Amino acid sequence: MRNVLNAVCIDCGAEHEANDNTYTCKKCGGILEVIYDYAYIKTQLTREKLAGRKDPTLWRYRELLPIEEGSELTPLRVGGSPLYKADRLGKILGLKNLYVKDDGLNPTSSLKDRASAIAVVRAKHAGMSTVACSSTGNAASSLAGNAAAMGLKSFIFVPERAPKGKLTQLLIFGATVISVKGNYEDTFKLSAAAIEKWHWYNRNAAINPYLSEGKKTVSLEIAEQLCFKAPDYVAISVGDGCTIAGVWKGFKDLYEIGFIDKLPRLISVQASGCYPINRAIETGRPIEWMEEDTIADSIAVGVPRNGEKALRAIRESNGITVNVSDDEILAAMRLLGATSGVFGEPAGVTGTAGLKKAAEQGLIPEDATVVSVVTGNGLKDVTSAQQAAANAGPLGEPIHIPPDIGILIDEFEKRKIKA
Ligand SMILES: *Cc1c(COP(=O)(O)O)cnc(C)c1O
Ligand SMILES: [Zn+2]
Fold first, then answer.
1. Which domain holds residue 378?
2. Which of 103, 108, 112 to mutate to test the pocket of ligand 1 (most atoms within 8 A of CB)?
3. Residue 162 lies in a domain
4. Which of the ligands is closest to the CA of residue 26?
5. CA distances for 191 relative to 204, 243, 299, 309, angstroms
6. Is residue 406 part of a domain?
7. Which atom of ligand 1 sits closest to the CA of residue 205?
8. Ligand 1 center to residue 299 CA distance, Å?
9. Looking at the domain assignment, is residue 259 inside a domain?
10. Does residue 90 sit in the same domain as residue 17?
């Protein structure tokens, strides 16, 4: 990889060769970060060159990705998700320049596809035939889908509580699914042991430093979609912390190669039932274990695996932390859907819920350019979506009637519905 210099420990700074034999620091066990040769990349990639590329997927940014030359790329359309100007929602939140990035439109319906695409490409290039991960759901379904598209086998470890939609995706993509009686932490540890025993390619995002490099492409797209005027704020939901770290890395990369001239502030949103990363920011204390009590299963992470990278991203960006209740998450799901036509899963709209709260608290200037990233699709968790609809009032359920126009008129009158 001519564009990559090395992989540096974010805790002690030790430098390592960038390859798939080393995921964590050999000195202190810390998490590694991929370091690029920006001077070289600048000679290879310009805004004009990028604009001329027809490929809408994340591979359009290959100069900024840790991919070996000659790698076979996943054929799935990962990335290239739309950025919508969300004026109706913006009006409600008091924001004049609000955008919604719908990453639920990725091939397996979450932002995680961006990381899994890198995982399967690297695995294939390394000559591996099997990939594995533990996940609360989306990393798993995206790995299984991307593996299937590349002809790789996948072994997936999920905690018992993974929603049905996500589990079903795994089974359809032909993964071997191991449902672990325990929480995410237990699941993670078992997968790590199995990966070591059978030498599978490791897609555990916090351990494998290449994966947040895939996730950063969401920021590369946002910037390109805004004609390289970086937004002022980006709101995103946080679980393990790899996504927000990736979001930050993407903007920093663009800044380093001179594509953008300022960096956004990050709005880190967690569930008030599980917010170990935000708590560390708010208290200035180290990250400590927290109970996992939220319907936003994709971000119910009591022991964040990438906490340090996330903390650094939030602090460097002069970021804001917001914690939202399950009710606020469900309300945001309905609000986003009904004002914008974008349907997110609970963790998918947690960023939007946090943005709403921050805006109501007057933390965001009304003329700021703000992007709310929707990280996963609502159809993955229909049970929560039905709850969100029901909470929203009498129209949260269908009107059940016999096929009779008279009765329909009566029902409309009774419910004060203007036809
Ligand atoms: C994984 C995930 C997140 C959070 O990403 P982390 O890297 O765990 O912080 C947010 N939303 C959805 C839908 C996810 O699947
Ligand atoms: Zn180290």
1. 83-109+211-394
2. 112
3. no
4. 2
5. 9, 21, 19, 22
6. no
7. 7
8. 6
9. yes
10. no
234 shares its domain with 327: yes
**Closest ligand relative to 8 C-alpha:** 2
Instruction: Tell me how far the alpha carbon of residue 22 lies from the centroid of ligand 2, in angstroms.
Output: 12
CATH code for the domain in which residue 87 is found: 3.40.50.1100
Number of domains observed in the structure of the chain: 2
Same domain, 258 and 316: yes
Rounded Cα distance, 177 and 133, in Å? 10
Examine residue 52 and state whether it is found in any structural domain, yes or no: no
Residue with CA at minimum distance from ligand 1 atom 14: 298
Interval between CA 297 and ligand 1 midpoint (Å): 9
Which residues line ligand 1 at a C-beta cut-off of 6 Å? 110, 112, 138, 205, 237-244, 298-299, 345, 347-348, 375-376
368 and 272 belong to one structural domain: yes
Ligand that comes closest to the CA of residue 116: 1
| Cα(170) to centroid(ligand 2), Å | 35
Predicted confidence (pLDDT) per residue in 111-138, tens digit: 999 999 999 999 999 999 999 998 868 9
Q: What is the pLDDT of residues 59-115, one digit of tens each?
A: 999 999 999 999 999 999 999 999 999 999 999 999 999 999 999 999 999 999 999
For residues 30 and 92, membership in a common domain is answered with no
